[in-house]
Predict the structure.
Amino acid sequence: MSRIKRIAVVGGGIGGLAASLELSRSPDVFVTLYEKESQSGGLCSSYRWKDVVCDRFYHVALSSDTETLRLGRDLGLENRLFWRGSSSGFYGSGKLVSMSSAFDFLRFPFLNPVDKLRLGLGILTAVRIRDPQSLSGLTAPVWLTQVFGRRLYERIWEPLLRSKLGEGRFRTSASFMWATINRLYGARDRSRRRETMGGFGRGVWVLAEAAEKELRRRGVEIKTDTAVTGLRWNIGDSNSSAAAPEESPFLEGGGDKETVMPSPPR
C-alpha cells in the first residue's frame, strides 16, 4: 500500500491553485492550501460591489500565455475566453499618440529615425534571449539602458517604469522586463499585423473560482484567512526552525511532509 504524502501549498494565488491542481492528480498525495486572505486567487481574485462582481486587478490574456490558456481549457472555460484586437498609445507633450501599427511607429513624433531603429533592434535583441539566467543580478534600469541606450531609456522606458512600479523600479529584476517584452511581443497577430488580447467572460476571477471548485471536488483542503509565518524542517537528527506567532500555522516538513511555495515570501 502506498504511503500518503502530505503537501502544504503556501499561497492561494493562481500559482498556488495551479500547483495544487497538479499535485492533487496523484491519489497518494493529500494537499492543503493556505491563503492569508479571505478568498483565493491572489491578483486574480474578485471584488464585490453591491450585486456586481468584478476583477480586483485588471488582466488580459495573450496568445503567448500558453499555461494560462491550458489551465482555462482544463477547467472547462474555453467558451468564456474571447479575443479582441487592441490598440495602444503613448502620452507625451500633452497629447496621446497611437502606437498600434508599424505605420504608427514610423511616424511616432517623440523619436528620431535613429532612435526608432535602435528601439526596434533592442526589442529584437530582447526577444532572442533564450536563457533569462544570463540577466541574473541585473536590475531593469541597468539592463534596459544596456540594450536600448540611455536616451531611449530616459524617453521611453523610464516613464513607463516610473508610472508602473514607482520607486520599486530600481529593485525590479531585468528578467521581469525581459518576460514582459517577450509576452507583449507575442501578442501581435502577424497575419493581421495588429495586437490581439483576450479575456474571460465576467473576469479572470472565474479562473480562480473554477480552480478552487475543482480542488474541493478532489478533496483538497483550502484554508483561507490563514497566514503561514514559519517553517520547521525535521530531517534525520537535524531540526531547523523559525519563530512564528502562536495564532499562525507553523508548518513542519520532512519525512512524508513537504511544503510548496509558488512565489517567494516578502
